[in-house]
Amino acid sequence: MSVDLEDLALMLPDARRVHGLAGRFVWSDHEVGLQTERALLDGELLPELDLRLTGVSHLFAERPSGRPFRAGAVPIPGAELLGETLGLRGEVVEDFEVVLELDFLDHPALFRPLDDVKASLKLAHGVSELQILAGRWGGMQVQGSATLQHSGPRALQVHVEVDAPRDVADSFAVKPVEGVWAQGRFEMGPVSAPSWKQHEAHGAFVLRGAELRLDEVEIDLQPRGELSGRARFDLPSGDELPCEVELELAGGDTESLLLLTGLDPNSDRGTLDVTGSLHGTVFAERPLFAGLEGEMSLRAREGVLDQSLPPLVALALASQTFDAVRSPGSLRYDRWETTLRFEEGWASAEAFELDGPDLRLFAAGRVELSQEPHFMDAEVAIFLFRQLDQALGGIPILNWVLMGQNQNLMAAYFQLKGPWDEPVARVLPLRSITQGPPGDMISAIPEVVQRGLGVLGALLRGGSEPELEPPASRSGNSEP
Question: How many domains does the chain have?
Fold first, then answer.
């Protein structure tokens, strides 16, 4: 039997509707075929369809042992924006594969529920390929494949093989939750995209209406690091992506973080740990952090800052003292740590601390991430280590000022302001140094260093000799 179709309409569950369908329908023995030239789902144009279903007689030979549809499936155009946010666009990712283990999938386009499905999804060169390795469709055993062409005229080819149900225990044990139309687990292979690289990932997912929840997510990152967390994404719009993310990164790399924020990934090379959460909205035509808020604690270790990093260049131009302690081409550090607060497109830090073999640096300020150039406004305090100890170690008062060998002495204060790529550093005058750290800087500097600065400031002002109080008595733990 062969039938030409013209302006056909089909009613689907949840009052959804396929209409304007034009094409050809063929039924021969155990096989059904459908080729569409045009069709719309609730007013949205569908890809051209080439469907072949074999074993169709099993669907009518006996009463299906399946279950009714779970309501709740809706379009999720935000899935494309989510993929772009993660750098998973087909035109830039090759040999990307996801293995899915679905407890169930209830979508009107399938006409019957899917259960206990194991499938493989591959994305490459603008083509999505789905292989159903095993599963049940309306209670029947099912295998098949589907290929969707994204570039050019969208086209979907589907081949499904249906067989009679086997004598297996009923596994529809997952209790329905209102609005949930898909849930299961996923395993992902290697990904190499502009802003995201990984060896593998796995986790659990739930689709409820247009909301996607990810739980128990663990990702083995490239070139190193383990990322774990959970997330929620709202997918009803292709232009904006409301989301909530909680994450923890152990043993990652600073380069990947800089790349994700749109900064030069070569400016910092170290090992990074991160914990925190973000919430807000990712917009299609705006930088990633333009609409996100939250807090992240970061700690990097055993790395180097490239001397071409614009803030370092500005500091070097403003102070020969700072330039003298840099290694050729880089500034080494043992660690740096801070807590970043993201709000209204800005990343701010009340206390940034860097420890290295040659200096200690404290900073407080903020950087704009929502537009380019990234504007920054910060105060920086620099302390020198071994060089000053060796030169001034014979002066007795330094035992109090420095609080022991290889401790801290203030070298200079700076104000950094301007575009991130070309900030201007201004050295604060010596008078300011003698009066102590400005602004929020005081909260970033440990108490032992603040006491040393107070002693040094009194000496530079030419006042009376300062009273030097041992740390134990200041904390109330000294002996009577």
Answer: 1
